[in-house]
Amino acid sequence: MHAVLARRQLNPDVTRLDVEAPRIAQIRQPGQFVIVRRAETSERIPLTIADADPVRGSIALVIQAVGKSTRELVALQPGEAILDIAGPLGRPTELIPSGHAVCVGGGVGTAVVHPIAQGLHARGVRVTSIIGGRSREWVIFEEELRRLGAVIVCTDDGSYGRKGFVTVALGDVLAGGGVDAVYAVGPVPMMRAVAALTRPLGVRTIVSLNPIMIDGTGMCGGCRVSVGGEMKFACVDGPEFDGHRVDYDELQDRLATYRQYELEALRCAETQCRLGPHLTNLPAAEGAHSAAKPAEPAVVP
């Protein structure tokens, strides 16, 4: 059992849980994730380790409530517990050793780029973070990222920072030259657009993928993605890959595989709340790591 030590609402849909996991807190590296199971009968959900405190023995999980299972997770309060947390899983981020890196986060993906920015900053790399949200209330992890370097905030409605998409701000930074690598995490269309900007400039681009995951060990094959024409398993070969080689169309299609089941599970859960717990649960599959990896309904890592 892993006790919930703290809970904080980051925006209307995203919650941060600090949970007890001393061993994971000591050995996790940027880019790695865990798979959590709320209770014995709960779905397994991949979540990026957004932060860690080895002294306290805790890790931070940032969760976007998009389905039945994630809603159950974010409802946890301090003093309650998560049954299982397996990890750290996945390959650590390949951090550049020096130079200038730009970390681009869209929505809940901002929490996923945070540990990457931490790792880069610790190496002495100059970090510029570009983060976005629909409006000011949807922007997360701004304060944490400002401790690591310059931050450019973008909002769709212009209520805070620059008006427009993070990709427009990235284009301006790239035009100034001197960018050695871009790390991007967010909705598939955003990561595709980032890769399209950096490809003609030859700027190394790493994206964090959030396909459906089940066991996190490569055994089930549920997290298959195509990278450079080869099949990869995001849980053991990733979750981060060369953004110029990812098949984004395939990834987008796979993320929608269980969407109907998610909707049915939510309807069932809402009906149970009104009519009682005797109704049978329908299957659900939230295959992204919310901060899975992360960043759009899926989903997530």
SSE order and pairing:
Elements: E1 2-11, E2 14-20, H1 22-27, E3 33-37, E4 44-53, E5 58-64, H2 68-74, E6 81-82, E7 84-89, E8 100-106, H3 109-122, E9 126-133, H4 142-146, E10 150-155, E11 162-163, H5 166-175, E12 181-185, H6 188-198, E13 204-208, E14 224-227, E15 230-233, H7 234-237, E16 240-242, H8 248-255, H9 259-275
Helix pairs in contact: 5-6
Structural notes for this entry:
α5 (166-175) packs parallel to α6 (188-198). The protein is an alpha/beta fold and 301 residues long. The two termini are 22 Å apart. Helices cover 27% and strands 30% of the residues. A 7-stranded antiparallel sheet has the order 6-1-2-5-4-3-7, sandwiched between helices. Strands 11-10-9-8-12-13-16 form a 7-stranded mixed sheet, with helices on both faces. The radius of gyration is 18 Å and the shape is globular. The protein has a domain at 100-252: Nucleotide-binding domain of ferredoxin-NADP reductase (FNR) module (Rossmann fold). It has helices at residues 22-27, 68-74, 109-122, 142-146, 166-175, 188-198, 234-237, 248-255, 259-275, and strands spanning 2-11, 14-20, 33-37, 44-53, 58-64, 81-82, 84-89, 100-106, 126-133, 150-155, 162-163, 181-185, 204-208, 224-227, 230-233, 240-242.
